[in-house]
Amino acid sequence: MTYLGARVLKNKAEERSTRLIKQHIVDDNDNGTHEELVAQTLGGRTMNVMLTGDNLHYNDNSLYWTKKRYKKYQSEQSRRESIESFDENAVDCAVHDEVERLRHRIPDGKGIGHLGIHKESDYRCDSSKPFWNLPREMFELGRYGPHRPEDRKIKLHFDIKNFIQNFEPSEWSYEVPEELMECPQMVDITDDNTGEVHELAKKHTPIYVNEVGHNTKLHRNVFIRDKNQRSIYYYVGIDKEHALNKGDTVELLVNYGDHYEQVRERKGYGRKNESEQVGSDEEDDAARLRRNFLEREESENDISTLNVFDLHNLMEFLTDKVLDPINLSIRRACPAEVFKKSSTLRSRDLIARRRIHWIGEKLQGRYQDLLADEGVDSDSELMSGIQLLLDQWRFKSLPSIYLKLNEEIREALQHELTEELLYQTRNRLPNPLDESVWCETAVNLMNSTTLLIGQYWFCYSGLVEVRKQFLAEKLLALAMNSAVAIRDGVNALKNNESGDLESQIKISSLTFKSPKLIIKENTLVDENEKVRDLYDIQDTIRYGTAASMADIQAYYDAIELCGIEPHYIPGKNKRVYDCERSIISQYEPRDNEAGDTRSPQHHWMVRSVDTIKRGDATVNEQWYIENQVLLVLHILASTCVDWSCTSEDGEEEGATETWYSLEKLCAEINLDLNKAKRALSLGAIDPNWPPEDEPLLPDSGDGDKKKKKSRRVRRRVAVPKVVGFSDSPEFPGWDVKGVKRCTGNQIDNYWGHPDLPEGLRVRSKVGVRTLIDYAEANNCVIAEAYEEYKDVTKYYNKKWGA
Question: What's the pTM?
């Protein structure tokens, strides 16, 4: 935004304006004709409408009455129930006549100022005057949304659409106070077909305003406000400290607040991205999975509570607005009669189609629950409609188009299938693809295993048993190669072969990679400032933390044997970090009989790579084979694939041997079957101590960007309820509190100001304008204006004060 300089009233016009405004008063308008009316459309949407007409509100529809005419108007109101016959023009008023003469010289609607009596020629340029308008005023930059009826959505519909379209809509959405069909409402300015900002929204300035994020060098000068509880507007406010001189250009910046933090983290500039070295969705697969798993869990929870009507309503919306356009794009890009590589299909469309299939499976489960419910009419029209829609949601055409996809799109689909399969096994394989929990070999094995299962189980056509046979052979070969990689790494360390590149690659296959974060003092030492005994901690320690603690404990064990005092207390007078690269070692516990009860890390301990290379500890080969190879492959293979033998007609055969089994896996990786069963019974290791601190995130912004939370509809309680509190966009320097009435959806606003007595609020815009106009006309503060109008009790309300 560039400041082109100020324009101020010429001296004569300013003197005239000051004189005339003192002779006017704001219309209290007891008839309420100036107030907006709320209309409700089919489907539960509401809109505000204004009454218009020639002299509909008296006084030529102006809020500003001359004091003489208004006094007559009030006296007529007090004497009659109806004053339709009142003619204000019958009042002889020289001030009104002067204002009318000034207005008539200006074309309709072009007058400037409160009274509409100024023309542009009444102003002069003032290049010396800087521009700043806070805290008294802000000017409207424009409407952010909604722009179309379909931009207003039930929050559940938006959340499922947002998941399907890979969370892009959440970058452009707001939650608003008003409910839609008794459900939380979202303003969503993205296209339902693509998830991208729609063309009409692109024509409005607010979407091009960037945000300050967590950059302390940037300054917010745009503020977000809602109008009528349902529309989002942007306002520009420049404070005195950042005042603009003529010719200055400033970037407009907004602060979305902490509700937008999830989007920041996905894009890589959130708090956790910096403080905990968590990556964005594009660069950190493990972080992306953690975020997406939470979204999938919330989607499942929402679906599990849907009744018949809500289920049908959701499916109709998604079928018409999302599924049908995506199916059309896929058919155009991959025509059935032509076998060719796809060049026009977008990877995001294919991912969205697969997610619709996944959501459809959850909806199918809810549909089956409703069928089993005796209180549900299974033959109803809605239930029949749900069944028809469910059949459309299945991605039956995937095998027929898979080989037509180009490499980039195929890879994107494979990542999506990997996420699905790892979500299915998340309770048994915690934190998948996380290099601080799984070694390099295990991460590679997860990716390769899910790739094969995704291809043979979902993407390839052909007889099921043939696909199972090929899949089993490839999975067992993967397991064998992974076990070989583990043993090669172990041998390289045993033989001290860490100098050449090949040996370094072998050793790297064993390592865990942790971010270099500071370990807190209370993690390292107990309340007596004694170093914690690593072998007595009952929780499984995070690997990077455990490796550093093991080195410290080795130091303290040494000085204890020597009978000397330590020269530092870890975490207190010396900063300690997590070990960035660690390996699992083996050790003999102090007490074999009590070992299992002393710590989960029985017979194994995490050490730094350098410690292993020096020969101070040896690699625990058995642990790696059991926990990083066996568990990964067997849990994925046994959970995600049905290995039971079936005949060509789909009937289960009586054969007891299958293409894949635990026994076959153990033979391939050279592992004792009983040890394998014991490892499976113990389950995968989830190092989760010390627990992560939940950051305190004070909401420093003024937007309600999409906030993930429970979306269940709560019953209304029949008491007035404060539903919003914010700075008033219409009256700078004032705040506004919204209070919902006991019955209905009406929300009443009450305005507050620091100069008003404590607990006192103004209950109407007319009252606020009266006080502001008096203060400006008399060059005084709001407190003095209140003293002048404090007897007008209908302006005020103390109930919703503080």
Answer: 0.81
Give the integer Cα–Cα distance in Å for 220 and 213. Answer: 10
Mean pLDDT in residue range 270-288: 93
Distance (Å, whole) CA 315 – CA 359: 10
Annotate 500-559 with DSSP letters as a single string: SHHHHHHHHTT-EE----BPPHHHHB-TTSPBP-GGG-SSPBPHHHHHHHHHHHHHHHHH
Query: Given this model, what pLDDT does residue 388 score?
Result: 93
Chain centroid to CA 650: 44
**pLDDT, tens only, 652-670:** 555 546 899 999 999 999 9
Q: Tens digit of pLDDT for each residue in 738-763?
A: 776 544 455 778 888 888 887 788 88
Q: Are 22 and 777 in contact (CB under 8 A)?
A: yes
Q: How many CA atoms lie within 13 A of 32 on its CB side?
A: 2
Radius of gyration of the chain (CA): 35
Q: Checking DSSP bridges between strand 139-145 and strand 231-236, what pairing results, if any?
A: antiparallel
Q: In 3-state terms, what secondary structure has residue 794? A: helix
**E runs forming strands in 3-138:** 6-9, 24-26, 37-40, 46-49, 64-66, 123-126
Rounded distance between C-alpha atoms, residue 463 and residue 648, angstroms:
7
CB 25 within 8 A of CB 70: yes
Distance CA 432, CA 485 (A): 20
| C-alpha torsion 619→620→623→624, nearest 10 | 20
Q: Nearest Cα to 719, choosing from 793, 794, 801, 800?
A: 800
Average pLDDT over the chain reads 86
